[in-house]
Write a structure and sequence with these properties.
Blueprint lengths: L4 H19 L6 E7 L9 E2 L2 E2 H17 L4 E5 L11 H8 L4 E8 L9 E5 L9 H8 L8 H4 L8 H6 L8 H19 L3 E6 L3 H4 L5 E8 L3 H8 L1 H22 L6 E5 L6 E5 L2 E5 L9 E9 L16 E6 L2 E9 L2 H14 L5 E7 L7 E4 L1
Parallel strand pairs: 1-4, 1-5, 5-8, 6-7, 9-15
Antiparallel strand pairs: 2-3, 6-8, 10-11, 12-14, 12-15, 13-14, 13-16
Helix pairs in contact: 2-10, 7-10, 9-10
Length: 375
């Protein structure tokens, strides 16, 4: 069966709208799906006697223990033992539960034993500079499943054209996914002094198919004997799990409860004030309203830096970007009025940015090393 992108997109839209309708209702409980990568007949990466499926499961269970000690948090596991779970069924667990977050935990490896460090992947709007090897490794479990060609609509994890053509289902949640991924990476770096390889965008099926903010964490490289030993130890797993759990809790405290507007932070103390004068919109920069939220419209996120010319953004002007964890988030417009922001969102969609969404920029000192640049 050939990959039918149109049917895939239509099915995706129906499912996402269904999910959004249910998930937009207020919840008293914040639910998190924890996914231990691999399992059963799929060991994942194995180096120096360190086995990915075992480390991922032990770490996931420790993350769950930390979260379960908190009030109003429900933890759901895709697996709690050494069993094989089909890749397609992992995000289904989260979708069926209408979960708030999907967190998948893995370990990395390469033939060169020198590389080390943590990295967290999100589903993104760009396919530029994608790491096909990482994508193939994490998607390759598909080949162990029966009838995989029918189940995954002809998707072949070994073919670059399949990876490039993989439909993105999570664009509406991209900003929140990046925020969670950034929290996780910052915790690893600032609190554990682990080497950070940043937040990255990759076409990973398990992220594509989940309809909520989702991340895939690579705890480190098992091929690096020192790092593998740390991750294989109970102490190492406990430390990594604590920082993942803390990041999830920080994310919940910051963003849960506002599902209409995504949030980001700016280092700038200078806020643009919208004035109405003789029917024209005028922007002035000499008023400090550091406690007031500023709204912009996010157009895309990419690992590439793009010149802020209107010609590069389908004719849209007043473009800015926020740079954090190796990702550029490109935004259109600026206003203090949420209704005006939604009008700008419609303008962006008419220009061709169909997945554009409103972000709220809090004018406060940013500890996430995020820079905002306008032109």
């Amino acid at each position: 069966m050939k990959f039918n992108s149109k049917n895939f997109i239509l099915t995706t839209i129906v499912l996402m709208l269904s999910y959004s309708s249910v998930n937009s209702q207020s919840k008293d409980v914040f639910s998190v799906v924890l996914d231990a990568g691999h399992g059963g007949k799929d060991p994942g990466n194995s180096y120096h006697g360190f086995v990915e499926k075992e480390i991922a499961l032990k770490t996931v269970l420790k993350v769950g223990q930390f979260l379960e000690n908190e009030k109003n948090i429900k933890v759901i596991y895709t697996r709690t033992s050494d069993v094989f779970i089909e890749l397609a069924n992992r995000p289904k667990v989260a979708n069926k539960a209408n979960a708030n977050l999907f967190v998948s935990i893995h370990c990395n490896s390469v033939k060169n034993v020198a590389p080390f460090g943590t990295e967290t992947f999100v589903m993104g709007m760009s396919r530029h500079d994608m790491n096909l090897e990482v994508a193939k490794n994490e998607n390759s479990v598909i080949l162990l499943e029966s009838n995989y060609k029918q189940k995954y609509q002809g998707f072949d994890p070994n073919k670059p054209e399949s990876l490039i053509g993989l439909t993105m289902m999570q664009e509406e949640n991209l900003n929140n996914s990046i925020n969670l991924a950034s929290e996780i990476q910052n915790n690893f770096t600032n609190k554990l002094k682990r080497n950070s390889r940043g937040v990255k965008q990759q076409p990973l099926w398990v992220l594509d198919a989940s309809y909520m903010p989702s991340v895939l964490i690579e705890l480190g490289f098992l091929s690096n004997k020192q790092e593998g030993g740390f991750l294989n130890s109970d102490e190492g797993q406990l430390k990594m799990a604590k920082q993942i759990a803390d990041a999830i809790l920080n994310y919940k405290n910051k963003y849960f409860g506002d599902r209409n507007v995504a949030n980001t932070k700016s280092e700038s103390k200078e806020v643009v004030l919208k004035k109405e004068e003789t029917g024209k919109k005028e922007f002035t920069k000499d008023v400090n309203l550091s406690k007031s939220p500023v709204y912009k419209v996010q157009l895309a996120a990419s690992s590439r830096k793009i010149d802020l010319k209107s010609s590069n953004f389908k004719g849209l002007k007043n473009i800015s970007y926020a740079h954090s964890n190796n990702l550029y988030k490109y935004m259109y417009g600026e206003t203090l009025n949420i209704d005006e922001a939604r009008k700008m969102q419609q303008e962006a969609k008419k220009a061709g940015y169909l997945q554009a969404f409103v972000v709220e920029i809090k004018q406060e000192r940013n500890n996430d090393n995020e820079d905002v640049v306008s032109q």
